Amino acid sequence: MGNSGSAVKVCTDHQGGINWLSLSPDGQRLLTGSEDGTARLWSTADSQCHGHFQGHESYITFCHLENEAAFTCSADHTIRKWDVVTGQCLAIYRGHTSIVNRILVAKDYLFSGSYDRTARCWSVDKEKQIQEFRGHRNCVLTLAHYSSRDVLEEEEEEEEEEEEKVSRDLLVTGSTDCTVKVWWVSSGRCYQTLLGHTGAVLCLILDAPNRELFSGSTDYTIRTWNIVTGEQLKVFKEHQGSVICLELVNRHLYSGSADRTVKCWFVDTGERIQTYKAHKHSVSTLKYHAGILFTGSGDACARAFNSRSGVLQKIFRGHKFIINCIQVHNELLYTASHDGTLRIWDIRGICKRNKRRLKKERSVQGRSSQKGSLSRLFNNKVGCMVQQENGE
Questions:
Q1: What's the rounded Cα separation, in Å, for the pair 225 and 214?
Q2: Cα 208 to chain center, whole Å?
Q3: For residue 199, which of 228, 182, 175 has the smallest C-alpha distance?
Q4: 97 phi-psi bin (left φ>0, alpha ψ -120 to 50, beta other)
Q5: How far, CA to CA in Å, does 156 sit from each of 148, 151, 153, 228, 289?
Q6: HSE of 177 in the Cβ direction (CA atoms, 13 Å)?
Q7: What backbone torsions phi and psi does residue 161 show, to the nearest 5 degrees?
Q8: CA distances for 74 relative to 37, 208, 372, angstroms
Q9: CA distances from 131 to 120, 190, 193, 214 (A)
Q10: 312-316 vs 3-5, strand pairing mode
Q11: Helix, coil or strand: residue 108
């Protein structure tokens, strides 16, 4: 049933629960945002705290880390940008009138979603609001971003309105009003409203190259949409609780739920191909890494599963409250919890075993494929001989 693991390091610097954990693109730093109103910067090289960002007047709900700058949003209605070297606050983005619960950085844009029922777009380099997206009837919980260049064919692009050709960026918002909306960033105009969910939309995953959007909801379902036409393509219905988190890898969709399970779905057919069952509370976060599915739960444990077989490989015990976020880097697992600690776990053993298993499977598949090729070659030759004998 899996072995229990001990953390190689426990970081207790925060004085309140950690709500989010972000890894920089270069993998050198981690950022934690906390209920204590501060964010902390950690080095993945030595696991030490190298930055302490103070200034918010209430708890931090979410954070995002770039290589040179850090971003935090808060219940104080603001977003802040920080210098990762000096710890200096570089910008304060003001305009929301309630809790800012999600931010997203894309290109030169900073997007935010709030309990004030709006999403907003800001210039990253200036403390300036560029656009406001107003139309949801309740709070905006989750965001995604893409460019129409990623999804539209040339002839479809020609049909776009002239005002939208200036900027082809689109923002996707999920709300507790049960809808998903797609907006033109340049004008703030709503391009699509995706209707179908009967509960709050808690999570979004975008697959722009395949023109697909996945949304998870408190109505227990996951829905997939064509982001060009707005058509609902499939409904995944097997969960018995709210769908809290999603991960998309190689056309396999992983969904974590309040029903204490994670399910794996084959996107192309909608078939549920695996259920991961060992959690004693809601699955709050998940991360796929090299054939291993890592999960965090309200039962204060993190777990590692063989993604293909569903077998539980390890349980990581030590947290006292819900694990809100996990990251994986350099064969280390990072877990951030509402107990205020960041824990770091060594997963080299699991990764090594999994690499051996994958190598063995590829070897077996290779031999099977070779046998299949020889069999087809033999059958083709026999078929030719039969045709010749029959004078065909």
A1: 7
A2: 14
A3: 175
A4: alpha
A5: 10, 10, 5, 10, 36
A6: 19
A7: -65, 150
A8: 8, 29, 59
A9: 6, 12, 18, 25
A10: parallel
A11: coil
3-state secondary structure 155-206: HHHHCCCHHHHCCCEEEEEEECCCCEEEEECCCCCEEEEECCCCCCEEEEEE
Give the residue carrying structure tokens 């390091």: 9
Q: How long, in residues, is the chain? A: 392
Name the amino acid, one letter, at 8: V
CA pair distance 65, 53, nearest whole angstrom: 13
120 to 66, 283, 371: CA distances (angstroms): 20, 29, 58
Beta strands 180-184; 190-194: pairing state? antiparallel
List the end-to-end C-alpha distance of the chain, in Å, as a whole number: 61
Per-residue pLDDT of the chain (392 residues; tens, 9 = 90+): 445 567 899 999 999 999 999 999 999 999 999 999 999 999 999 999 999 999 999 999 999 999 999 999 999 999 999 999 999 999 999 999 999 999 999 988 999 999 999 999 999 988 889 999 999 999 999 999 999 888 766 444 445 454 444 468 999 999 999 999 999 999 999 999 999 999 999 999 999 999 999 999 999 999 999 999 999 999 999 999 999 999 999 999 999 999 999 999 999 999 999 999 999 999 999 999 999 999 999 999 999 999 999 999 999 999 999 999 999 999 999 999 999 999 999 999 998 887 777 666 666 555 554 444 444 433 443 343 334 334 44
pTM: 0.87
Taking CA atoms, 251 is separated from 206, 267, 304, in Å, by: 12, 5, 20
Contact present, 202 and 244 (Cβ < 8 Å) = yes
Is residue 215 within 8 Å of 181, Cβ to Cβ? no
Tell me the residue type at 105: V
The domain segmentation of the chain, as residue ranges, is 9-150+167-359
Q: What is the largest CA-CA distance in the chain?
A: 89
Cα 165 to Cα 177: distance, rounded to the nearest angstrom: 30
CATH of segment(s) 9-150+167-359: 2.130.10.10
CA distance 12 to 117: 35
